[in-house]
Amino acid sequence: MDVLRALDLFDGVARIKTLRELGATAHELRRERECGRIFSVRRGWVARSGSDRMLVAAAKRGVVLSCVTLAARRDLWVLDASEPHVAAPPHSGHAKTTRGVVHWSEPLFPRHPDSCEDSLENALVLIARCQPHEAALAVWESAFKAGLVDPGILSRAPLPPDARRMLEQATPFADAGTETIFRTRLRWLRLSITPQVWILGHRVDFLIGERLVVQIDGGHHVDDQRTSDIAHDALLKLHGYHVVRISYDQLINRWHEVQGSILAAVAQRLHVAA
Length: 274
What we know:
By secondary structure, the protein is an alpha+beta fold. It is built from 13 helices and ten strands. Strand 8 and strand 9 form a beta hairpin.
C-alpha cells in the first residue's frame, strides 16, 4: 500500500512504524516528504498535507482528543467546549500541552496506538467525571439519542461510579441538551414533566402537569420559526394552557428567573386542568 493511501486509513496522521507495516518503504516516505505531500509531526509520526489540524496537534503533543472536545467533534450537544480537552496515559513522558485540560487516566476501552481521537465511550467516562452533573448528563443523552454508543455495552463494562450514575439516569429521548438541563433542574418538583408533547398540531418542549407548557427558544430562534411559535402560543392560551417561553440565556445563566416563573404558575395551579 502506498504512503498516502495508508495515511488515509488513519485520517491523515499516523506513526511511521505503522505505515512501514502496511507496505510503505523508506524511499516512498522520503519522496512524499520532499514533494510536500507529507510532513513530520514529531519523532516517528507523519501527517498528510491538509490533515485535520486538531489531529496533527494531538499527535504532536502525544495525546488524544477526548472528553467534551471529542463529543463536540461528534456533533453532540456540549454546554462548553471552548477549551480543548485531551487524554493521555498516566506517567506519559511524551505528552505536552500548552493550554486546555489533560485527563491523565488509563482508558476503559483500549486505544489504538495510531489514533489521535479517543473512543466516544472513553470520552463519556471522562465527561462524567470532568463536567457538572447536568452538563455531563446532557452529553450522555445526546450520544444515546444519536445512537452513537450502545448502552448495553456500557452497562457490561466496569464503569467508575460517576459514569455508572450517568448510565442509570440517561435516556435517549432528549432532543437537545437544554431539555436535559431543564428536566434535571426541576426533578425535585415531583410533578409530571413530560417532554416533546404534541398539542394542537405542534410539539411543545415540556408539559408540566396537564396545562403548563414550557417552550425553550434556541440561539437562532428568529423570523418564520418565531412567528409560527408565537401563533401557536396564542392558540394554546385560547385552549386553556398557560405558556412559559424562555430563552437559552435564561436557562443557562438566569435560572432563578425561570424557576421563579414556573413556581409562581404552579402555586396558582395553572398546571391543573379546570
